[in-house]
């Protein structure tokens, strides 16, 4: 069977309803388009949803990570520990400070940062750890917080995938020193582009808020409203990372649907888990006990020893059947920049190098129909059946 005459199932499609459209139109009609009351409301509702003290809305998770490292005081020459199994944003923000991202290998099952390798990489220069909750499966935050406290390191969680995720019953976003979320279009809730930094520390929240808008004194947006005046002061050389009210208007509505979206994704994950349990060629995602996987991604690992085709050929075969997929991630140490700048070699991160050859992310999003889920299952099963060793 090939793709001809069949609808293509994309790797991802956002779920935007009438509520988001109405909310954006209302915002456009209000005449207030940039950062204002909608952003404030989005922040309040986000912090209430997670149960944290402060939420600072910005225009990407990358911006949130940058502001978080600034808030905890990262300086030139510091070292910050980052998993190699992540998107480049997690490490590039460290480079903004002329600090050094120190890459760490991953666990073979969860693909999360390996706590043993993490601890080995700590030096006198290490100032912070950025754990990434891969695919929405929380890292073992007990281990990571314990290591961080023992070595006096700050923990900035990259939770771009982890809304809503829990570790030992505790919401991700309320555990580390600062947590950063993404509302990029493929994420579990979206504002097109957007991000949020959460923390219980009021000083860091203030610093991130000020630095997100040119280093101008707090509540700068008020200067254009009835409450404000023409006067403002620049206290630091800041950045232009503020979220617009147009984006927040989408975010407020998406957040209301966050739990419903999660239920839909969890149902798809359960259907995949059940179907692929019958295929020894497919390793389904590991779930750690007492945690809630956000199921932002559903990452399978191919048991390539049992197949006659490699991962790239498997992806092509799925594409031929009308199934879009992706790979999360090409580990950082395999990219030219990180290889050349830091001299990393594939064998420096044996687990990440090995699992990279095996991983495929399958479609998982609330707008997927039951028929589409069954088509993905049938296609994966068919490709395995035809290429079994
Ligand atoms: C793990 C991880 N961190 C950070 C980011 C950056 O998010 P944003 O696009 O909102 O800056 C991404 C985006 O894909 C990601 O996957």
Structural class: alpha/beta
* CATH architecture call of the largest domain: 3-Layer(aba) Sandwich
Principal-axis shape: globular
Largest sheet descriptor: 7 strands, mixed
Identify the strand order in the major beta sheet: 1-9-8-5-4-2-3
Spans with pLDDT under 50 lasting ≥5 residues?
A: none
Cα-atom Rg, whole angstroms?
22 Å
Fourth CATH level, the homologous superfamily of the largest domain: Type I PLP-dependent aspartate aminotransferase-like (Major domain)
The CATH topology of the largest domain comes to Aspartate Aminotransferase, domain 2
The tally of strands reads 13
Percent in helix: 25-40%
Characterise the protein shown here.
There is one protein chain. Helix 1 (18-30) packs antiparallel against helix 8 (245-256), helix 3 (61-71) crosses helix 7 and helix 9 (258-276) packs parallel to helix 13. The strands form 3 sheets. This protein has a 7-stranded mixed sheet, sandwiched between helices. The protein folds into 2 domains: 18-256, Aspartate Aminotransferase, domain 2 (3-Layer(aba) Sandwich); 259-387, Aspartate Aminotransferase, domain 1 (Alpha-Beta Complex). Helix content is 37%, strand content 13%. By secondary structure, the chain is α/β, with parallel strands linked by helices. It has 13 helices and 13 strands. The model has no long low-confidence stretch (mean pLDDT 96). The structure holds pyridoxal-5'-phosphate. Residues 60-62, 86-87, 89-90, 132, 158, 160-161, 182, 184, 195 line the site of pyridoxal-5'-phosphate.
């Amino acid at each position: 069977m090939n793709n001809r005459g069949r609808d293509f199932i994309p790797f991802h499609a956002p779920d935007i309803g009438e509520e988001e459209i109405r909310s954006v139109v209302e915002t456009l009609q209000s005449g207030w388009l940039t950062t204002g009351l909608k952003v404030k409301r989005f922040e309040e509702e986000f912090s209430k949803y997670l149960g944290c003290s402060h939420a600072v809305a910005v225009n990407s998770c990358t911006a949130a990570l940058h502001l978080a490292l600034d808030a905890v005081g990262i300086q030139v020459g510091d070292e910050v520990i980052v998993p190699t199994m992540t998107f480049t944003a997690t490490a590039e923000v460290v480079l903004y400070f002329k600090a050094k991202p120190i890459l760490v290998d991953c666990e073979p099952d969860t693909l999360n940062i390996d706590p043993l390798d993490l601890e080995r990489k700590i030096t006198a220069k290490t100032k912070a750890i950025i754990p990434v909750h891969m695919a929405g499966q929380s890292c073992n935050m007990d281990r990571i917080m314990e290591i961080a406290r023992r070595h006096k390191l700050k923990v900035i969680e990259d939770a771009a995938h982890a809304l809503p995720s829990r570790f030992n019953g505790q919401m991700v976003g309320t555990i580390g020193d600062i947590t950063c979320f993404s509302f990029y279009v493929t994420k579990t809730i979206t504002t097109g582009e957007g991000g949020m930094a959460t923390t219980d520390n009021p000083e860091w929240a203030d610093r991130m808020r000020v630095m997100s808008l040119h280093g101008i004194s707090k509540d700068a947006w008020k200067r254009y409203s009835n409450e404000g005046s023409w006067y403002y002061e620049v206290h630091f050389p800041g950045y232009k990372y503020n979220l617009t009210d147009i984006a927040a208007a989408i975010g407020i509505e998406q957040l209301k649907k966050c739990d419903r979206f999660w239920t839909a994704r969890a149902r798809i994950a359960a259907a995949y888990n059940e179907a692929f349990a019958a295929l020894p060629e497919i390793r389904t995602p590991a779930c750690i006990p007492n945690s809630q996987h956000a199921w932002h991604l559903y990452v399978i690992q191919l048991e390539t020893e049992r197949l006659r085709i490699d991962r790239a050929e498997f992806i092509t075969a799925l594409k031929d059947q009308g199934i879009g997929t992706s790979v999360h991630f090409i580990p950082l140490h395999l990219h030219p920049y990180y290889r050349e700048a830091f001299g990393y070699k594939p064998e420096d991160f044996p687990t990440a190098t090995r699992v990279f050859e095996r991983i495929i992310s399958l479609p998982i999003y609330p707008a997927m129909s039951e028929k589409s889920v069954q088509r993905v299952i049938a296609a994966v099963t068919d490709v395995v059946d035809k290429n079994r060793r």
